[in-house]
Design a protein that fits this description.
Helix content of chain B: over 70%
Distance between the termini of chain A: 106 Å
Number of domains of chain B: 1
Order of helices and strands of chain B: HHH
Helix content of chain A: over 70%
Radius of gyration of chain B: 17 Å
Strand order of the largest sheet of chain A: 1-2
Number of strands of chain B: 0
Oligomer: heterodimer
Shape of chain A: globular
Shape of chain B: elongated
Structural class of chain B: mainly alpha
Order of helices and strands of chain A: HHEEHHHHHHHHHHHHHHHHHHHHHHHHH
Number of domains of chain A: 2
CATH architecture of chain B: Orthogonal Bundle
CATH class of chain B: Mainly Alpha
Number of strands of chain A: 2
Strand content of chain B: under 5%
Largest interface: A-B, 13 and 14 residues
Number of helices of chain A: 27
Distance between the termini of chain B: 51 Å
Largest sheet of chain A: 2 strands, antiparallel
């Protein structure tokens, strides 16, 4: 089979799984829906490996295969195929998405098993994976937009999965609205591309654009900026980032799959996919890089003070995606995609470990109440620490190689790109600190009540309530199920976490400077025309970067150890001393308030004006005026309707008599 | 005989009918007076037909009779319905159509 056949099969499996589960949920017994869903994604992963192998068999400069099922839309001058493009970038993304998704589905088989909407959950999840793969494999901008919008809907459906929880539905709407703003940007970009080049096909666009556009011409910059609107909304970059922390209202596997490993990296993928356009518009690429830098710093600082376990990891996700955006925007394509992959491993792992701990805490998510799970949950604790080490960039871990590769590239490119290297290392320090803020506080220390209970073999079992507001809930459909599942008691969760833990440790071997360059060699098939792609940092500077990265990681972890293990309580005093800064960070740099003041309130005010002036006075005035005029006229003429039949008769006879007289007079 | 005589008679009959419609209050009498007016019209039609030696007027008179018969059916039906519902048989008192 050719690589494109595998490509179609990659798409088919999750779609079939989603439809199958959606149609047969009534008759599926027990955990069958979960296993079907997992198997569908697993098959998709197998097909992705098939596509990978077939692509390796092709000569290196012919690894861009397209295939079209049929014409999606044809009109004069417009010809859109339902076509896919299978190239190294797409295959790497497919491998990451399907691989991580399989493990997260496996985890959910146990984690979600007491939930009333079990089958619905897996149907949505499979649909999400299908949409994400459609986005990745699309061979033209139209199909990309289709996948892009599907992904947004799947994200909305899964954030609001517990639909009787008011905070969850509100978060879902927020995510959807911001994603739609991104969709608009993407659609406008596609319109502009079509107007300028007359085609939507990726390869044709990339081939024609260097002849059509001069470097930094207004139109190409506008196209790239509009693409960035779409990319930033999906990837939660400033200023479209506020939905991601709220998206943590969804179930933890959803956070792991959509809001850490896959969907939020779609923006990074888009920038990498459209790199020929961005290289023609360096201004837009620089804007993207600066937004990524801002996001990675802002998110890292917020992660220092947030106390909700899942939200800390969410801010960390934003921050890490910032690294990727910086990477693919400044031309470090391999490093950006590599970091995307390693991040998918360790961030999904962190979320899984967090889910296990939250289950042990009976759904409470505030880390202030958690401590000392080392003995009660040895497996989860170990995997949490592995995830935190990889996130912190501990030497030898996967995050260590991928993050530093981006920063070294920035430093090597020189000029103003030094800023990215410096900012990146500062954020790396913060990252190491907050990842061990989680690690040390949850794992070490005096065991909390729930941990002690668990050591005696009892899983904590609180009254069901909303962790964000404390509202009382029940456990019927639309709310989380009655039972909690921790990795120590559920084999599927242990397997999924174990595999991810292994990958989070060893994935770095793909790209060790001077030793291996597997990613780079393979991705060359997509990026070979790019000049930046071939400007690889020298080995010396790469190792210097790794050294700096190691020092920064040790410093961050050490500081966390000092503050949270050796002398706990210092942080509280620090918080009281620096209240303004703490408040500033805790309110998330006032971004929600800013958007509230700049967009939400003016819109509401405009709406109120339209209601009170335009609607009430102008429109209503016209209507009531017309009604009044008719009524007045009616009052005037109603006197004629006396109801006396003889009066009517007199009018008829008199009228005819008058007419007859008139004609007599006229004719004589 | 000249046609004028017939026309005068027709006009007189019409005037009698019209004044009956205008002055009487009983619906039954009003109906009768309406018939009188129609027949006055018929008389004029037939008279003209004869004097002009044209048969159209005769046909027209027949059509008017058909219409009159229909009108009597409706009118008498109304009167019977009023009587059954014990409404006053006085057109001045039935004025629910007043605006």
């Amino acid at each position: 089979m050719s690589a494109t056949t595998y490509g179609w099969l990659i798409l088919l499996c999750p779609l079939a799984g989603s439809i199958l589960i959606a149609l047969s949920w009534r008759i599926l017994p027990g955990r069958a829906a979960g296993w079907i869903g997992t198997a569908a994604i697993g098959l998709s992963f197998v097909n992705a490996i098939g596509a990978f192998v077939m692509l390796l068999g092709e000569p290196e400069d012919a690894r861009r295969l397209t295939s079209a099922l049929y014409d999606y839309a044809t009109a004069v001058g417009l010809d859109i195929d339902l076509g896919i493009l299978v190239d190294p970038l797409a295959v790497v993304m497919c491998l990451v998405v399907t691989g991580v998704s399989t493990l997260i589905h496996l985890y959910s088989v146990a984690y979600m098993s007491s939930d009333e909407g079990y089958a619905r959950f897996f149907s949505y999840m499979n649909f999400f994976v299908f949409s994400m793969l459609l986005l990745i494999l699309a061979g033209n901008f139209v199909l990309l937009i289709v996948g892009w919008a599907f992904v947004g809907f799947a994200s909305y459906a899964l954030i609001s999965y517990w639909y009787r929880r008011s905070t969850a539905t509100a978060a879902g709407m927020k995510a959807f609205v911001i994603n739609v703003i991104g969709d608009i940007g993407l659609v406008l970009a596609a319109f502009l591309i079509f107007r300028e080049l007359g085609t939507f096909d990726y390869l044709e666009v990339f081939e024609a654009s260097p002849e059509r556009f001069q470097t930094n011409e207004g139109t190409i910059v506008a196209i790239c900026l509009l693409l960035l609107v779409g990319a930033f909304a999906k990837s939660a970059q400033i200023p479209f980032h506020t939905w991601l922390p709220d998206a943590m209202e969804g179930p933890t596997p959803v956070s792991a799959l959509i809001h850490a490993a896959t969907m939020v990296t779609a923006g990074v993928y888009l920038i990498a996919r459209a790199h020929p356009l961005f290289e023609l518009a360096p201004t837009a690429a620089d804007i993207a890089a600066f937004a990524g830098l801002a996001t990675l710093l802002v998110a890292a600082t917020i992660a220092l003070v947030v106390t909700d376990l899942k939200r800390i990891i969410a801010y960390s996700t934003m921050s890490q995606i910032g690294y990727m955006v910086v990477g693919v925007s400044i031309g470090a394509y391999t490093a950006g995609i590599f970091h995307l992959m390693t991040h998918a491993f360790f961030k999904a792992l962190l979320f899984m470990a967090a889910g296990s701990i939250i289950a042990a805490m009976a759904s409470r998510q505030n880390i202030d109440g958690m401590s000392g799970f080392k003995k009660a949950m040895p497996f989860t604790s170990l995997l949490l620490i592995i995830g935190a080490l990889a996130l912190a960039g501990f030497p030898g871990m996967s995050g260590f190689f991928s993050k530093d590769e981006i920063l070294v590239f920035a430093a090597e490119r020189g000029g103003m790109y030094w800023i990215f290297a410096i900012g990146g290392y500062v954020a790396a320090f913060l990252t190491a600190f907050y990842s061990f803020r989680i690690g040390f506080r949850v794992v070490l220390g005096e065991p909390c009540e729930e941990a002690r209970e668990l050591e005696r073999g009892h899983l904590a079992h609180g009254e069901p309530e909303n962790p964000a507001t404390g509202e009382k809930e029940d456990t019927e459909i639309g709310f989380p199920g009655p039972e909690h599942h921790i990795a120590e008691h559920a084999a599927p969760m242990r397997i999924a976490m174990g595999v991810l833990g292994f990958l989070a440790v060893v994935a770095g071997v793909l790209q060790i400077p001077g030793v291996t360059a597997a990613m780079e060699h393979f991705l060359a098939g997509t990026f070979e025309e790019s000049e930046l792609f071939h400007s690889v940092p020298s080995e010396g500077s790469a190792y210097l970067g790794l050294l700096v990265g190691a020092i920064v990681a040790f410093a961050g972890i050490g500081l966390a150890w000092l503050l949270y293990v050796r002398s706990p309580g210092v942080t509280l005093r620090l918080r009281d001393r620096l209240t303004p800064i703490h408040n500033f960070l805790e309110r998330k740099w006032y971004f929600d308030e800013l958007i509230d003041a700049l967009i939400y309130r003016p819109v509401i005010r405009a709406g109120r004006f339209a209601h009170e002036v335009v609607e009430r006075v102008v429109v209503q005035g016209l209507v009531t005026g017309a009604v009044g005029a008719v009524r007045e006229a009616g009052v005037l003429v109603r006197g004629a309707q006396s109801g006396f039949v003889r009066a009517y008769a007199l009018l008829v006879v008199g009228g005819f008599a008058a007419l007859a007289l008139y004609f007599l007079v006229v004719s004589s | 005989m000249a046609v004028e005589w017939y026309l005068v008679l027709s006009a007189l009959l019409f005037a009698v009918g019209a004044s009956g419609v205008l002055l009487r209050r009983s619906p039954l009498v009003i109906l009768l007076c309406l018939e009188l007016m129609l027949n006055a019209g018929n008389l004029a039609l037939v008279a003209f037909s004869r004097s002009l030696a044209n048969q159209d007027g005769q046909i027209f008179a027949l059509v008017v009779m058909v219409v009159a018969a229909c009108e009597v059916v409706v009118g008498l039906g109304l009167i019977v319905a009023m009587f059954r519902r014990r409404l006053p048989l006085n057109v001045d008192e039935i004025r629910s159509l007043r605006g």
